[in-house]
Amino acid sequence: MNLRSAVAVGVAFGILGVGSAFATFARIESMGKNTTYIMDDVSIFDNPANINLYPNYLIGEFGPYTEDVPAGTNQDPMHPNFGGIFSISLGDENNPDPRLSIGGLFGRVSELAMYLPTRVVGDNVKDTSVVPETVTNFDGFLGGTLSNGDAWGLHVYIAHQDGGDVTPSGDYQVSGGSYASIVQADGGLNLQFGGNIDFEFSFGLARIQYGPDHKNFFDDGDFSFLAKSRAFFTLEALDGELVPAFSMKLIDAPGIDNKRTQAGLGINVALDRGFFWLGADFIWDMFKTHDWTFDYTTGESIYNSQGDDDPAWDKRTEVGGMISFGIERNIWWDWFVIRVGGQKSILYTECNQNEKNEGKSGVCIDDGTFFSTNPLADGTAKDHVGFGFGVNIEEKLKIDVTVAEDLLFRNPFQGEGRLFSRISATYSF
Length: 429
What we know:
Layout: H1 3-13, H2 25-30, E1 57-61, E2 81-89, E3 99-106, E4 119-121, E5 128-130, E6 138-145, E7 151-166, E8 172-193, E9 197-210, E10 224-235, E11 240-253, E12 256-271, E13 274-289, E14 292-294, E15 301-304, E16 314-330, E17 336-352, E18 368-372, E19 385-393, E20 397-403, E21 420-428
Parallel strand pairs: 4-15
Antiparallel strand pairs: 1-2, 1-21, 2-3, 3-6, 4-5, 6-7, 7-8, 8-9, 9-10, 10-11, 11-12, 12-13, 13-16, 14-15, 16-17, 17-18, 17-19, 19-20, 20-21
């Protein structure tokens, strides 16, 4: 989408069915689960050049609320985050470009955190330490536009904890050997070709490290690489856009080698008082581990660093596709919108367990092939279907809500559960 027109249209229509409107994690979670085929403020994490689409606004949320909460108890959502983007126009009143933007967000948990184990075994079995939850969790952005509207952006993510951990009471205390660190740096471009083509590309470098003790940034280990690209081709006949997309990640972390590529084609269309998008993707994913064990009942994972000298790799390969969609529409009033969306993946999975790991519970517990899919209904952003609504107050304050998937099936007189799983808000000024 053209940067100048996207900013103008987003301000003019807000959440009234425009794909580039100021929105949030809650909007994406309730309307298709991903940002690949639409332009949303969450797209700044895919390509930092997109911060130039959202000048001068604040964003915040309580975080996801997907924990099982006993009746009568009160547990706050996990991982709240907040931040903002501020822009300075260096142009004139007829053309805001060139423009300089700076932004930051505190508290976001990166998807790279999935590569952190629960515990790490050190030089001997007794030397086992818990991998702490990172606390810095900061996203920093710097970007700008040229006089022709082309945009660039830089992004850094720092999530770190060293020598301490949170106690059950919520206080932080010394925890010998506890260490976890995720550092990511990436840059991106958003280029316009005529008035009908917008091309994006981003490339990133990341480092994932964890215990059993402190490590320096350039200690032994490999870096991870991330790349994404997509293009928006305007379809005037449909009042929409055709969007081809490609992404790749090469993850290297202690005991982990994960290579994943995804390519797809999607479309988004503006409707009367609404918006619709649909996408289809091809997925190839190879996930290799050595000296990792997984408890498939509790979800805990342990990495034994003693096996680094002679690794015995298990390999899980998945090939298949995913289809996803999202729709939102204003009902009753112009300031109220409802959303629904979903995604479904079907992957042919092949497991190859190293003979040295027989009897162990690794990424593969045996050799074999089978079909797999994304979670059916666990309330997370990865499951099949989402539902939510949004409120737009004078094109300034916008609140998006993801509704708990069991809300309509719950006995309201028992008092258990939750009404919503995520609430996010933005304020444009």
